[in-house]
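pipeline/complex-builder :: batch 7 item 3
reading input block
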Amino acid sequence: MALQRLINFGDLQDKKMSANSGFQEQATVTPPSGTESGPGREASIEARLLRRMLATLGDPPIEFVLSWNGEHIKPANGTPVATLRLADRNTLFGLLADPTVRFGDSYSTGDIEVDGDLIALVSAVHRSMARVDVGSSLSRLVAGWIKRPRRNTPAASRDNIHHHYDLGNDFYSLWLGETMAYTCAYYPTAQATLEQAQIAKMDHVCRKLRLKAGDTVVEAGCGWGTLAMHMASRYGAKVRAYNISTEQIAFARDRAAKLGLTGRVEFVHDDYRNITGQYDVFASVGMLEHVGRSYYQDLGRIARRSLTAVGRGLIHSIGRNRAAPLDRWIERRIFPGAYAPSLGEMMPIFEPNDFSVLDVENIRLHYALTLRHWLERFTAAEQKVRAMFDEHFVRMWRLYLAGSVAAFETGTLQLFQVLFTTQENNDIPLTRQYMYQN
Amino acid sequence: MALQRLINFGDLQDKKMSANSGFQEQATVTPPSGTESGPGREASIEARLLRRMLATLGDPPIEFVLSWNGEHIKPANGTPVATLRLADRNTLFGLLADPTVRFGDSYSTGDIEVDGDLIALVSAVHRSMARVDVGSSLSRLVAGWIKRPRRNTPAASRDNIHHHYDLGNDFYSLWLGETMAYTCAYYPTAQATLEQAQIAKMDHVCRKLRLKAGDTVVEAGCGWGTLAMHMASRYGAKVRAYNISTEQIAFARDRAAKLGLTGRVEFVHDDYRNITGQYDVFASVGMLEHVGRSYYQDLGRIARRSLTAVGRGLIHSIGRNRAAPLDRWIERRIFPGAYAPSLGEMMPIFEPNDFSVLDVENIRLHYALTLRHWLERFTAAEQKVRAMFDEHFVRMWRLYLAGSVAAFETGTLQLFQVLFTTQENNDIPLTRQYMYQN
């Protein structure tokens, strides 16, 4: 009977079974609702195609319900962490053709409903995909080059950045908290609030850079200007900060004026490629994701020419354990042109430009905490977001935030802070103890 | 008159002058001794060739004396940090043909004598070469591939390691100190003794790895077994340590027996490629330099299969800011088969093997301090070393140690400690504060 229920998945299934060195029961299918499953009852062709697709994703523990015929497709292994209800055949066929993008899109439209925790669901998919992917790094590397994100020429960068960061400061202020810092925070303890953690992040960055009164800083990509203002007000630095987002620069200038920091922080509405002058410190927190790999060496060259002979720099970026394209739904719908590099892929910033990497810290679990805080506030503000945009937008952003929690918790994404200096700089503390003193 | 003295160095000289955007006076030559320099007096052809070679090295501030004709060749720029006396024309021609290797060889034989500080001399050469090299990273990358170090197959590795590490434990104990640790130490302060710093290094490594009683550790390349014994005796770990050096393994086993650690530390006289079993921790301190780039991915694969699902690892290695071959004299005469990778070049250990890099620390200035301590002790023991070997050996090793101080002080070499874990391990402390607690 169990044998009768097995579907022959062809080559793929054979490979999987031999890889597992043994027999493994496949997803069981409950036939159209109201009827009992029994011998001779076959699953629908849709169910069989769905299971085949799920096998390519490593058989995540998810249950599916096909609304049009009431079929329940239970996972091949384990208890389901969530149930996905597919509204119609088109939704299913979209999922079969392009699971990543179409899951995101159909969830956004409501054609896929999720019963269960969204974070647990996406985490389960990441974990099962990681199992399938083991050893296929070359193919993913190739995939990374084929499915390149959009270009990041100065003009394209303006469009890409506008798409995301110019959604309105009112929208972001609903859930980013008063620091308006839209990058990974740093939690001295897991109990810290979002605001405490964002301030701790800025202090952690400033300490790593040994920022002191009178230091000049150039910041490449400054968001709403929070770090630049923090460096000026708390450390006495003189900061010039670059950003191509119109809305963010306007907000930053306004806030700097209100805080009386206009003389010490200058916000320049321009591309990082147009940075001029020489500084003691080069900082870039959360911009590298938008730079594009082909510009990394240029970014390093700009950092090099912007720094004095003993200048220090820090780049803070989402990264990966190995080269792979960003989740395609995220790259298409949320962050056009974005890419999360592996540490090796980041090296063209430093190695050809005579920089010495002093310190790399991976704080991915902090991003999971940060995103949980954002998601919590976003969820509480959903009614307001719906009024600003629409239900589609709410669902899209909910998935983006929840999916990002999952990506950082499963190690699919990393967060690297890279501290560097010029090769000739010997003014380097012997230990990193100084980063951990109050 | 100054113009008359200028030698036309051809293309190379033209490039240099245009790069400097201006006129620059070249090395002045004092004609054969006893006579006053004056108009119409031309430098010898040897002196002119030497100056041409020095220009390709960026004109280091070194004075040369040609013993056979008494000529003094002053540096093109600045006050000389040292004077090199060349014994004969053969020495000069060797230097012209292959400056790096022949300087080392002729210093070792005594055909080059140095008046002045050896460290300052080599540092000056590194600094001037770094100026010339700016921007030519591609050519050096190519050079790195052409001048590949010797292969590191298991058999070749045995020969390479035997060449250096089997010179005799009595020899090494003259200057390594009682810890017999032959890797970069860690100086909590610049005033720490060599012994304090070596113990601090081992504690720093153990803390990074969060080593605790009962943990199982595999060590790839264990030297004289100091770290393995430290992990067992101070942290209660159970350690299996691999090494292919006959002399080192014999010493380590003997010491472990004397310390009553035989049940907790096992020394295996075998190649790291033959590591078996699963462990909580994988450690490799100062072995990567001998692994060879083409084996990095294998090393990572071995680390992966040797670690439990939540295992931690640390690799400590000499490195570089960018890909470049090791100094050719060092690679030929001191460390056959050795290579110091850039951080990017190290990534094939981690990225294809689903490791997550948690922390990279660059402690190059600690290696300069360590080497200064070794050189000091070596110098004090020169008479004994001469009795064990000969004058040639003494001079060769003096240059190797002094040259290495210079390489780390000028940033020509780096020292990276890379802490890593499996992608799925979420048992990661939020901050690195734990590394800095006593």
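note: Chain A has two domains: 2-134, 154-436.
queue -> next item
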